[in-house]
Amino acid sequence: MEIQREVGDLLNSDLSIQRQGSPESLKQERVHVDKDQVGPVLGRIPSGLSILTAQSPDGDQTGMLASWVQQASFAPPALTIAINAKRYLNDWLVDGAVVALSLVGESQMQYLSHFGKGFEPGVPAFEGLSTELTSSGLTVLSETLGWLEGTVTGSVDGGDHRIYVVEITAGSPGELLETEKPFVHIRKNGFGY
Asked: Measured between alpha carbons, how far is residue 5 from residues 1, 10, 16, 192 in Å?
């Protein structure tokens, strides 16, 4: 339970790396729900933790801890990634942008603490870590369960998050894929990380 609290603290702390301005959807609550009833159930929807690599139009790369990633399609293989609408990274994730995900294992807490607070633009996110490059030149973590790479094919406003559809174009299993379980994040309350 302590680990889950630490993950929540790290995910909440990454909001300090914010994008300028905020979408209209952040200014007003769209639907009234009983948070005391909905929150505990919503928070029990499990999500795996990954490190998302994205690249700016200028070629700068960064990494961030992503907890809302879900497979969305078999054919073509695709997934969705939800990014807080306040993050500057949303400006990089235009249709056609290439991104990568490194899948974090349950024993790999070092990646949560390293990527949990996010990085300002231009700060090297992968410094001091074992990495490799995908065929598209994105940096991925070489000691995780594996990685996937894909192209953003669309996005939708999800309220305080922007949801991206990523069509998978490449991937590689890591050495730990068969021996370690993925890190699964379960929250106490669905209204916070």
From this structure: 6, 9, 18, 11
25/173 Cα distance (integer angstroms): 38
**pTM confidence score:** 0.84
Ordered domains of the chain (ranges, CATH): 2-18+37-185 (2.30.110.10)
- Under 8 Å CB-to-CB from 169, ≥6 apart: which residues? 98, 149, 150, 151
User: What pLDDT digit, counting tens, does each position of 113-163 carry?
Assistant: 999 989 999 999 999 999 999 999 999 999 999 999 999 999 999 999 999
Identify the CA nearest to 148 among candidates 8, 55, 50, 9: 50
24-46: average pLDDT: 78
Q: How many CB atoms lie within 10 A of CB 64?
A: 22
CA separation for the pair 111, 109 (Å, rounded): 5
Q: How far apart are CA 191 and CA 7, in angstroms?
A: 15
Assess contact for 165 and 78: CB atoms under 8 A: yes
CA angle, residues 52, 58, 59, in degrees to nearest 5: 45
